[in-house]
Amino acid sequence: MGRKFFVGGNWKCNGTTEEVKKIVTMLNEAEVPSEDVVEVVVSPPYVFLPTVKSLLRPDFHVAAQNCWVKKGGAFTGEVSAEMLVNLGIPWVILGHSERRALLNESNEFVGDKVAYALSQGIKVIACVGETLEQREAGSTVAVVAEQTKAIAEKVSDWTNIVLAYEPVWAIGTGKVASPAQAQEVHFELRKWLKEKVSAEVAASTRIIYGGSVNGANCKELGGQPDVDGFLVGGASLKPEFVEIIKAAT
Ligand code: PEP
Prior knowledge:
This protein is 40% helix and 16% strand. The chain is α/β, with parallel strands linked by helices. The chain has an eight-stranded parallel beta barrel, surrounded by five helices. Helix 5 (107-119) packs across helix 7 and helix 7 (140-152) crosses helix 8 (179-196). The radius of gyration is 17 Å and the shape is globular. The chain binds phosphoenolpyruvate. Its main location: cytoplasm. InterPro entries: Aldolase_TIM (IPR013785), TIM_sf (IPR035990), TrioseP_Isoase_bac/euk (IPR022896), Triosephosphate_isomerase (IPR000652), Triosephosphate_isomerase_AS (IPR020861).
């Protein structure tokens, strides 16, 4: 079964209404491969989701950057999965390393969030990745396996999950993983899925790479057999995002 190339744009905590509209115009005017070839999902901050959803071309989709771990209620400052459903937002990014590090989101909490979002019908880009210290200690595969395990323990259906391998040392640093480094971890993650979940899930789940992807390095990274696309931060705010989408072909 072929895995459709997936390119996500994580706009993080950036933008004004005017800037967001400019990015959407740029995307709407871009000539990119068809939806049959590449799935494109952009993730603006919450407050811009309705604007982006209403203006964005229909073959691109939107994602929230987070959602609450259970049904909404007395959780000041949070946004629930139910609200995303109400707004017609089909995707959410969960477990991003910035949230894991800055907001102390544990593996278990991320696993619970993934399960809850899926239960509400929202598709999930679930992020895993090691720090530089963990890589240097030789524990990269153990770390991403543990993070993936915490998700696997809470979900039974992987159809609506895209797994994003994002080494923390590569995020926003300009230090991209080499194609061989990315391929090695993606291969290990797929092997883990095969052994611990099922051969079918391993074969069909998209594993995308994130961390300093840009127009210049995307082609070689995207050409690796187990790299099924990208989650892009900084470059997703720029015209070169279009080049990254084109790496699908
Ligand atoms: C990210 O935030 O998910 C990311 C990959 O950022 P950048 O592309 O800027 O490294």
